[in-house]
Amino acid sequence: MSGVYLINEDGTPQSINRIRCKNEGEELQDMLDRNLDLLPGEQIDPDNPRRWFLIKREMPVPDPNTGGNRGSIDFFLADQDGIPTFVECKRFADTRSRREVVGQMLEYAANGHFYWTADILRKYAEESCQAKGLNMEECLLSLMSDNEDLSDQFFDRIQLNLREGQVRLIFFLEDSPFELRSVVDFLNKQMERSEVLLVEARQYLTSNVRIVVPTLFGYTEQARLVKKTIVVKPPLQRRSWDKESFFNDARAKVNEAEIKNIDWFYDQCLKLGLEIGWGTGAVSGSFSVYERSICPRSFLSVWSYGSLALNFGWLNGSGRAEEARDRFIELLKEKGFQVPLGLKYPNLKAIDWTDKVKNLIDILSQLMNEFKKLPN
Question: How many beta carbons lie within 10 A of that of residue 33, not counting itself?
Answer without folding.
Answer: 14
